[in-house]
Amino acid sequence: ILLLFLFLPAARAQTPWFRPKSVKELDGAQMSVVLQDHLGWMWFGGKGGLFRYDGLTFLPVGLPDSLSRDEVTTLYEDNGKLWVGFNSGAIGFLPINTAFLSNNRPAPEGGQPPVTPFQRWIPDEGNPAAPVTGFCTDRSGGFWIATYGEGLYCWKNDRLYQFDATDGLAGADIYDLACDGQGNVWAATDAGISIC
Q1: What are phi and psi of 31, to 5 degrees?
Q2: CA angle in degrees (0–180, nearest 5) for 169-32-62
Q3: pLDDT by residue (tens digit) across 146-167?
Q4: Which of 51, 80, 130, 143 places its Cα 20 to 30 Å from the Cα of 94?
Q5: Which residues contact 192 (CB under 8 A, 6 or more apart)?
Q6: Over its length of 196 residues, how does the chain's per-residue pLDDT go in tens digits?
Q7: Rounded to an integer, what distance in angstroms lies between the CA atom of residue 118 and that of residue 101?
Q8: For residues 26 and 48, is the Cβ–Cβ distance under 8 A?
Q9: pLDDT, tens digit (0-9, with 9 covering 90-100), for 46-75
Q10: Whole-model pTM?
């Protein structure tokens, strides 16, 4: 019985234990969002940019110069694309199923460095001017964009529509967004939850 009590502290498998992961590729970058895609890749975003983790290495995603210092605020996967929202209101996407090219890869001898297939998404109506905080896709194909300060946007039929308090939204500061199987859009705001 004495041996049982000696080994009892080691039997605390129910309590999770977190340990920091020091990674030289991140170079001290502050990560605030994480997503695992359907292929199993882990994606991390924050003040240090956007990174893909393959289980061994963190590879930085080459972002356009205009976004290289912008903070990644949300990540979302839809139809084989990783959608990325930024603090500035910018939006972009990266095809997940294409060959991944890091902006740290050397150029082939005598050639140009590879280009990451990251693309800016700019509808004719323009991007939000507030931080993007979430994305979701509803049953009818509407692509919803949550912002912190400008309410919700929906891209449908090649048009971007904005929704705010005049449309019944509880508040313009959206923290998160979800679309359910019944076609409802759920928005978490300072003033409560709004359902459309």
Answers
A1: -100, 135
A2: 105
A3: 999 999 999 999 999 999 999 9
A4: 130
A5: 170, 171
A6: 544 444 555 555 567 776 666 666 667 778 899 999 998 999 999 998 899 988 888 888 888 888 888 999 999 999 999 999 999 999 999 998 755 555 444 444 554 444 558 899 999 999 999 999 999 999 999 999 999 999 999 999 999 999 999 999 999 999 999 999 999 999 999 899 999 8
A7: 10
A8: yes
A9: 998 899 988 888 888 888 888 888 999 999
A10: 0.82
**8: which 2 tokens?**
């009892």
Q: Give residue for tokens 């998160």.
A: 176
Output the CA torsion sign for 184, 177, 67, 109: negative
Count Cβ atoms below 10 Å from residue 67 Cβ, excluding itself.
Answer: 20
Angle at CA of residue 189, ends 49 and 159, nearest 5°? 70
Taking the C-alpha atoms of residue 79 and residue 26, their distance in angstroms, rounded to an integer, is 28
Give backbone dihedrals phi and psi of 26, rounded to 5 degrees, phi first: -80, -20
12: DSSP letter? -
Contact (Cβ atoms closer than 8 angstroms) between residue 101 and residue 50:
no
Three-state secondary structure call for residue 4 = helix
Describe the strand order of the beta sheet including 91-95 as a list of residue ranges.
72-78, 81-86, 91-95, 119-120
Maximum alpha-carbon separation in the chain: 74
H/E stretch holding 110 reads: none
Tokens 């693309």 identify what position? Answer: 119
Q: What dihedral angle (degrees, nearest 10) is formed by the CA atoms of 118, 154, 159, 89?
A: -50
